[in-house]
Design brief:
- The complex is a heterodimer of chains A (76) and B (631).
- Chain A is mainly β and 76 residues long.
- Chain A has one helix at residues 30-37; strands at residues 2-5, 19-21, 28-29, 46-49, 52-54, 60-61, 66-70.
- Chain A has one domain (2-71): Ubiquitin-like (UB roll), CATH 3.10.20.
- Chain A is built from one helix and seven strands, in the order βββαββββ.
- The longest helix of chain A has 8 residues, at 30-37.
- By secondary structure, chain B is α+β, with helices and mostly antiparallel strands.
- Chain B has 24 helices and 17 strands.
- In chain B, the strands form four sheets. Chain B has a six-stranded mixed beta sheet with strand order 2-1-6-3-4-5, with helices on both faces.
- In chain B, β16 and β17 form a beta hairpin.
- Chain B starts with 7 loop residues before the first strand and ends with a helix.
- The chains are: A mainly beta (76), B alpha+beta (631).
- Chains A and B meet through loops of A and α8 and α9 of B.
- The structure holds iron/sulfur cluster.
């Protein structure tokens, strides 16, 4: 699956790159995957799974998926 | 005397050529420690009521803050203030960069400029030597040309130049100011006040180091080093360093809060063409910074293969000329940014005034006969660039738009005012209030008119475990609230956050420094103040400094006849968004007005009129101001 960590969430990925490919053995809760990568769920405000907005707590992901996550954004 | 300075203020009367200095007491400075607070004090005390913004009696204040130029990241800010020709309310606009620290190094807290020069001049402050010099050869020049000519004439490449541009000379009501060509006092049209005074620029060079005046220079330096190391450890400052503000485009678009086509929509279908990755590929050539700041959020870009002299577009500029005008060509946006900065127009007001005109055109309120033959439709990049030129030069239809969207709408008539996205005459910036209600409250009640830096945005405080929320705890924010709520708790948070930002704008902190928006924990913010000053302040003291400044600004407006009627949003935000994640969402007007009344009340203001009450003013040490206004 492809995970895109938008906004400041890229800070938490291993090489601080917004886009990463993950190979999953099975369907996993997105929350668990994020925790494994080191992205705090508390910082995630919006999840887009294959183009549709979904609820982080209810979301499972598998290999073909494209997931984009975004934090709450301030101005400037 | 904990601080080793005499708090000097420079006074310049351009009519007589008289130049004087005066000293402030430390006790006084403790109550009005620079920036917004000091400017608010002088505007209220010294400007006669009903002064026309373009009259010589308008008082221009250029004020650094207590921390401006300290060896601590994100402390280069200063304020330019006066009566705004755009809003006729208090005008107050901050910028970062290098000019403020240089003014402090020259030994001044502030410069107060009155009168009007007979012919174009600029002010040259070289430490304690101050001179008014002819600017006749600079008038009509781009800002890059003028800066180069001033530096050449003074024989010093390091002179810091704060200047207006051709737009200010032409009294465009939203003309701004720039320092070092890349940092802008954009809002409120204060560049036109420079123009009206025949003042092209204020050039400064100073040699006094901040450490010579700090109460505890070693402690301050140590804190500055610690904070510089933390920049890379904090996700928000990391993001600013890597992407800068253009990184906001995609997250705001997916959240349905990217202003599109004059705020009718919240998502832009061509967002992929303008988001950060495209910016990085198409435009970016380098990253830069402000005085002593480790965040380095400024971008350098190329246009037509050549490095721009004016730096790259920030998020506000990017959105106001792209999604807001329906344009997706980044090179056009970079060109629009360059034009604004060369002529010195506020890019927010320029973009939103043009999008207003585009909506008028598409709805038949104006036609080709009005627009000098220009098809002023959403998505027409050539039309947008042509209109920027025309506004700066007050040429043809540009002369009408140079008045700002509110006055232009009054002239066009036929309901055009519904298309003018402005509060108190100032155009709304690039944040969708239908998704962030406290941002909307800030747009409505801010004394300077609609602005996005009045409070930290609602989306920071929706999850109690998030970093920005946890960092806000020392300020008294301990309960998570939805972004789209105006509960009593939300209003209480608004007040705290407004006072905190006002404090930042007083002492010289950039919005991206202190938490919750920035990476500096409030404990370290407090430490920086006490190490610099030795004043032993508490958080309550800092919030009170901010509140005092807000009240001074409010009193200025009260004296000029502003009422609660002026503290409201444009009609559009009470109507549903047409697309995106927030499609169909609007703000309930009654709910909004009820929350506003509650806000007035907890501010110690009359809940009906929004006028500060004497007891609150006396609590803030502003009894003198209550006397002045007979409150
Ligand atoms: S955070 Fe950015 S704008 Fe603020 S002072 Fe630093 S470089 Fe300048």
């Amino acid at each position: 699956m492809i995970l895109y960590a938008g906004g400041y969430l890229a800070f938490y990925t291993p090489d601080q790159n917004p886009e990463m490919a993950c190979v999953l053995a099975d369907q996993v809760p997105l929350r668990d995957l994020l925790s494994e990568i080191g992205i705090p769920a508390a910082e995630v405000q919006l999840v887009i799974l294959n183009g549709a907005i979904v609820d982080l707590e209810q979301t499972y992901v598998q290999n073909q998926d494209v997931v984009k996550i975004f934090p709450g954004v301030d101005g400037g | 005397m904990p601080m080793k300075t005499d708090f000097k203020v420079l006074r310049v009367d351009l009519t007589t050529g008289n130049i004087q200095t005066e000293l402030l007491s430390e006790d006084f400075y403790k109550r009005y420690p620079g920036g917004k607070a000091l400017a608010g004090y002088y505007l209220l005390r010294e400007m006669p009521a009903n002064t026309e913004p373009f009259d010589p009696e308008n008082v221009l204040i250029l004020a650094a803050g207590l921390l401006t130029g300290a060896p601590v990241s994100t402390t280069p800010r200063y304020v330019v203030a006066g009566r705004s020709p755009l809003t006729y309310a208090v005008g107050s606009s901050e910028a970062a960069g290098y000019w403020g620290p240089e003014l402090k190094q020259a030994g001044y807290e502030a410069v107060i400029i009155t009168g009007r020069a007979e012919n174009p001049v600029y002010l040259w402050i070289n430490d304690q030597e101050v001179e008014i010099r002819s600017a006749e050869n600079l008038w009509g020049r781009t800002t890059a040309e003028a800066q180069a000519m001033i530096r050449e004439a003074l024989g010093d490449e390091k002179v810091r130049v704060l200047q207006t541009g051709i737009a200010g000379e032409n009294l465009v009501r939203f003309a701004g100011l720039t320092n070092d060509l890349r940092h802008f006092n954009g809002r409120n049209g204060l560049g036109a006040v420079f123009g009206a005074k025949n003042l092209k620029a204020v050039a400064v060079r100073g040699t006094r180091r901040y450490q010579e005046i700090a109460h505890d220079p070693d402690g301050l330096r140590e804190l500055g080093r610690k904070l510089a190391r933390q920049v890379r450890d904090n996700p928000q400052s990391w993001e600013l360093q890597h992407r800068g503000t253009p990184g906001l485009i995609e997250p705001l678009n997916v959240s349905g809060m990217l202003p599109t086509r004059n705020f009718r929509q919240g998502a832009f279908e061509q967002m992929e063409d303008i988001k950060w990755e495209a910016y990085e590929k198409e435009l970016l050539i380098a990253r830069r910074t402000c005085f002593a700041c480790a965040v380095r959020c400024k971008r350098e870009v190329q246009i037509d293969g050549k490095p721009s002299e004016y730096g790259g577009p920030e998020y506000e500029t990017l959105a106001s000329f792209s999604s807001n005008c329906g344009i997706s060509d980044l090179h056009v946006i970079a060109k629009a940014n360059e034009l604004c900065n060369a002529y010195m127009l506020d890019s927010i007001s320029t973009g939103v005034t043009i999008s207003f005109a585009m909506e008028c055109f598409e709805n038949g309120l104006i036609g080709l006969d009005d627009t000098d033959g220009i098809e002023l439709r959403f998505g027409n990049a050539d039309a947008m660039l042509a209109m920027i030129e025309k506004i700066a030069k007050r040429d043809g239809f540009g002369d009408i738009l140079a008045e700002g969207s509110k006055r232009a709408a009054e002239k066009i008539g036929n309901g055009a005012i519904d298309y003018a996205q402005q509060v108190k005459g100032q155009e709304v910036p690039m944040h969708e209030p239908r998704g962030k209600y406290n941002v909307g409250m800030g747009y409505a009640v801010a004394e300077i008119g609609a602005d996005h830096l009045i409070v930290a945005h609602d989306t920071m405080f929706t999850n109690p475990d998030s970093l920005p929320f946890r960092n806000a705890a020392p300020l008294g924010i301990t309960q998570a609230e939805p972004a789209r709520s105006l509960s009593d708790e939300k209003v209480r948070q608004y007040l705290i956050l407004e006072n905190w930002n006002s404090f930042e704008n007083t002492v010289g902190y950039c919005f991206f420094g202190p938490a919750p928006r920035g990476f500096i924990h409030p404990d370290d913010v407090l430490a920086s103040i006490n190490l610099a000053s030795g004043w032993n302040m508490t958080f309550d003291d800092l919030l009170e400094i901010g509140e005092r400044a807000v009240n001074l600004h409010r009193l200025f407006n009260v004296r000029e006849g502003f009422t609660s009627k002026d503290d409201d949003l444009p009609k559009r935000f009470y109507e549903p968004l047409e697309n995106g994640f927030l499609e169909g969402e609007s703000i309930d007007h009654d709910l909004f007005l009820a929350a506003r009344a509650h806000l007035y009340q907890i501010k110690g203001w009359d809940p009906e009129t929004g006028i500060p009450t004497r007891p609150r003013l006396e609590h803030l040490g502003l009894g003198w101001a209550a006397d002045l206004l007979n409150l």
